[in-house]
Amino acid sequence: MTTKSQLESALKDAMRSQNDVARRTIRMVLSSVKNTEIDRGQPLDETGISAIIQKEVKIRQEAMDEARRANRPDLVQEAQDEISILQNFLPAQLTETELKELVAKIITELNATGQADIGKVMKALLPMTQGRAPGNVVNQMVREMLAG
């Protein structure tokens, strides 16, 4: 079952159970998927849908940070609820250990030795970590490992 069909099925379930948070959250994601498909003129693949879901998670994490600064625990809880719903549709995230092993493997394969090779390593790594680890975390780990 594709992620898009899982989202559509979950939307129906949320409507049946009258779960407003899930219904609203899933509708936003499906809307983003459809808008992106219209813009591109073709259906999205699993990677594209995962990228949209990750973008939605990131938006909610930023909203949660803003709500904390504004001392709004109600909005923090709402964002956390939405993030937990969205994470059900993302592929399993890489653990820090798995990510370190993958970065080390790519660095070895490419014979990368220093900061000048960050771009080359990132270019090889990003397709492997797409949807499974945030790009900024991958970048930070590559920088640390190439620094020595």
**How would you sum up the global shape?**
globular
CATH topology of the largest domain: Hypothetical Protein Yqey, Chain: A, domain1
Number of helices: 7
Overall CATH architecture of the largest domain: Orthogonal Bundle
Q: How many whole angstroms does the radius of gyration measure?
A: 18 Å
- Provide the structure class: mainly alpha
End-to-end Cα distance, whole Å, is 43 Å
Number of strands: 0
What is the topology?
Elements: H1 3-16, H2 20-40, H3 46-69, H4 73-87, H5 96-110, H6 118-129, H7 135-147
Helix pairs in contact: 1-2, 2-4, 3-4, 5-6, 5-7, 6-7
Describe the structure in your own words.
- This protein is an all-alpha fold.
- It folds into 2 domains: about 80 residues, Orthogonal Bundle (Hypothetical Protein Yqey, Chain: A, domain1), CATH 1.10.1510.10; about 50 residues, Arc Repressor Mutant, subunit A, CATH 1.10.10.410.
- It contains 7 helices and no strands.
- The longest helix has 24 residues.
